[in-house]
Amino acid sequence: MGEMIESNLESMSELVSLCKRRGYIFQSSEIYGGLASCWDYGPLGVELKNNVKSRWWKAMTYRPDIEGIDAAILMHPDVWKASGHIDNFTDPLVDCKNCKSRFRADNIDINAACSNCGKKDTFTEPRNFNLMFKTQMGPIEDTSADVYLRPETAQGIFVNFLNVQGTMRKKLPFGIAQIGKAFRNEITPGNFIFRTREFEQMEMQYFIKPGTQKEAMEDWKERRHKWHVDNGLRPENLRWAPHDSDNLAHYADMATDIEFKFPIGWGEMEGIHSRTDFDLKQHQEHSGKKLEYVDVMDGNKKYLPYVLETSVGCDRTLLALMCDAYRVENKGEDNERVVMRFHPAIAPIKVAVLPLSKKLEEPAKKLLEEIQMDYKCEYDVSQSIGKRYRRQDEIGTPYCITIDFDTLEDKAVTVRDRDSMVQERVPLDKISDYLRERLRF
Whole-angstrom Cα distance, residue 329 to residue 252? Predict the structure, then answer.
């Protein structure tokens, strides 16, 4: 065997194909022709997503200074008035008068031809388009109240600041974390799950004493970068993209993004923002409720805390992990192998149990029962062992356990490592220890 040559993901279409083929991600409403930029997570995709969320939740809330919540998607409409979303959460929009296609005005040349129909001088004048989805709450549409699907999860944290601080007896600095769906009526979504109208956010708002935001920013930058690397992302595929003063959001005094090198180019995956006291001040003013923190360590001084936010897209993180893990070995050769080199903690399937023959299903199923309470497993008895290995490589399964006829005599199984493809004979009564040692995270 010659030297193994490895290549990375070259186009998003390669990944889309694998996701459909192996049950990671499907087009939403596919049997009806699909719904643009909406995606369903299949059996492997939901496991991968749950692993990402679990890793984030543990990193954020398994510590004494951060609590978790799960706020409602539907909130009082005045929340979005206070936050500025009703008046300012807009993109400039133009329509093509000929084909009715819509575009963001800041992404096109108004004098150029329409990229959809090719006609020139057909664009309307730019107008602001609010990105929030509006619906009605109440049984009769004419008399019901307008409400919105939340465009971010952060506001659910801010309006619960005093609830959490008081019930959990927290002192500054402390954080509130949340994972949840958000909705934005994007004009130009696309690039698979990179930009969608329905997505999941993992956000943490860290409440701090005013004047300490620079130290908090540096601390959380280091923590968040390390989290991504610990999940298996290669550092060379990550970079910082600080916002200059002209590009800061109206609520921020400092901000930076963590970008990942996707096949479509560098793209934002996580934002770390110093939001000052903007949000709490707005909600205090609009609600008429005092949201001040009483600092008993500073003579019972009252003030609105500043906020350091870490906001990461769950779907984009998952996309980055898949792009980074995708490798092709010996491309174009007879021994070509596509393998998803997931960190074992992220891999949707941890162990595959593969009986060499249907006659060996009894001991194979017994082994499966013993280990599946601890690890998400897959059981596969169809086709040759080589084809089954290749399936598990594309799934990203770290370990395959083969039960052969020798197992009946020596009470041992063959364990294959996904990355090295090295096979090792392990006694059945030692297999739990073997897996525990390698799948400890």
Answer: 45
pLDDT digits (tens, 9 = 90+) for 328-345: 998 878 889 999 999 999
Picking from 414, 177, 181, 125, the residue whose alpha carbon sits closest to that of residue 309 is 177
- Flag whether pLDDT at 2 surpasses 70: no
Residue 274 has pLDDT above 70, yes or no: yes
For residue 257, the tally of other CB atoms under 10 A from its CB is: 19
Using CB atoms within 10 Å of the CB of residue 405, give its burial: 0 to 12 exposed, 13 to 18 middle, 19+ buried. exposed
Instruction: Report the distance separating Cα 432 and Cα 345, nearest Å.
Output: 17
Same structural domain, 107 and 164: no
Residue 372 sits in a domain whose CATH number is 3.40.50.800
CA–CA distance, 23 with 418 (Å, rounded to integer): 19
**What is the Cα 435 distance to its own chain's centre?**
27
Dist. CA 57–CA 417, nearest whole Å: 29
Do residue 259 and residue 156 come from a single domain? yes
Cα(223)–Cα(219) distance, integer angstroms: 6
φ, ψ at 250 (rounded to 5°): -60, -20
- C-alpha pair distances (Å), 257 with each of 11, 273, 295, 400, 435: 23, 8, 31, 38, 37
Range of 96's domain? 90-130
Identify whether residues 246 and 385 lie together within a single domain. Answer: no
Rounded CA separation 170/163 (Å): 10
* pLDDT-above-70 percentage for the chain: 98
Tracing tokens 């901000």 back to the chain, one arrives at 255
Q: Say whether both 199 and 259 belong to one domain.
A: yes
State how far the Cα of 173 lies from the Cα of 217, in Å rounded to an integer: 13
| Average pLDDT, rounded, for the chain | 92
Instruction: Give which of 174, 151, 162 is closest to 307, Cα–Cα.
Output: 174
Do 279 and 412 lie in one domain? The reply is: no
| Residues in Cβ contact with 267 at an 8 Å cutoff, skipping those fewer than 6 apart | 194, 259, 260, 316
Q: Which residues of 171-191 are buried (b: 16+ CB within 10 A; e: fewer)?
A: ebbbbbbbbbebbbebbebeb
CATH classification at residue 180: 3.30.930.10
Task: Residue 225: count other Cβ atoms within 10 Å of its Cβ.
Answer: 18
Q: What is the pLDDT of residues 186-214, one digit of tens each?
A: 877 779 999 999 999 999 999 999 999 99
352, 22 contact by CB (below 8 A): no
